[in-house]
């Protein structure tokens, strides 16, 4: 490797000159001896420049420089050279961070590299635990299998969403941080005094976000879930967020819970996009005239969910207030939101 041998007292001035001419090689460490400094070169300086520096061709020497260790700046940098390049593209860098927990999607053909990827995620996110998705979200309680990859195997955590704190166990309950914006959109529509039914509340992120909003002192939220673990964490979250008295946690099948409960709501949240349609009749039955449904469905378009809402509400009038694509579910299929006002 070529370098420029310069007297110690000239070294700083010459280094700046080489830098200015962009011929100092920054990948290698500058070397020093008692009287000389050796500057790594990108190219040999021409005679004019050598003259300007008070040197001649003899100053260009072969030197064994030490390479600067490059610090990886992200997971991809870190994994470069550690997993085969052709597999790099297959590794989905998209991952969810829920509190102290990272949840990754790693395809099966990266099985051998999974722990390395897990360690990389741990290092670059600085979280406590890394898990890999081992199944799709399934079953009535909408959970998935997780495989522990790195860090501590602790799946309970507290996630921050806007100014709310949401405690949950990623192995036992459903929770998606990707719905944060949607929850804010709904919470922003709520009026003080509203009676709300959150039909599929999970650990209560919609309910907590609403109850935490300033100026909503008199909201009353009936938050229902069929998963006892979800209701356990909802109760924890009510305490954590100091919203006691605003949220009533109810365990059970929402159809049964509502039939046993004589409540009519100003708005009903139906975030169970796979099967919420089955609960539209019971929702309409418990919605006051002029109340709002926040209905969610997996769909390729808005027409189908709107048609279902209108059918369930008939003969009541339906005014569609808003329609949103909340997030992608699979190619061409969206988790869509319909805000619908149901009249008399
Ligand atoms: C997609 S998760 C939504 C949770 C929550 N709304 C959120 O945003 O995180 C759906 C929830 O509905 C609950 N669930 C499913 N069927 C139910 C039913 N028949 N009655 C009440 N809850 C139900 C599941 O246990 C799950 O927690």
Please render the helix and strand layout as text.
Layout: E1 2-7, H1 11-20, E2 31-32, E3 36-40, H2 47-52, E4 60-62, H3 75-79, H4 85-88, E5 95-98, E6 101-104, H5 114-125, E7 129-133, E8 146-151, E9 156-161, E10 164-169, H6 180-187, E11 195-198, H7 205-212, E12 220-225, H8 228-240, E13 247-251, H9 254-260, E14 265-270, H10 280-285, E15 287-299, H11 303-313, E16 318-330, E17 333-342
Helix pairs in contact: 6-7
Bound molecules: S-adenosylmethionine (SAM).
Residues 140-142, 174-175, 179, 200-202, 205-206, 224-227, 230, 253-254, 271-272 line the site of S-adenosylmethionine.
Provide an overview of this structure:
This protein is α/β, with parallel strands linked by helices and 344 residues long. The protein folds into three domains: 2-62, Alpha-Beta Plaits, CATH 3.30.70.2580; 75-154, GMP Synthetase, Chain A, domain 3; 178-342, Rossmann fold. The protein has helices at residues 11-20, 47-52, 75-79, 85-88, 114-125, 180-187, 205-212, 228-240, 254-260, 280-285, 303-313, and strands at residues 2-7, 31-32, 36-40, 60-62, 95-98, 101-104, 129-133, 146-151, 156-161, 164-169, 195-198, 220-225, 247-251, 265-270, 287-299, 318-330, 333-342. It has a seven-stranded mixed beta sheet with strand order 13-12-11-14-15-17-16, with helices on both faces. Helix 6 (180-187) packs across helix 7 (205-212). The chain is elongated and about 95 Å long. The relative contact order is 0.07. S-adenosylmethionine binds next to helix 7 and strand 12.
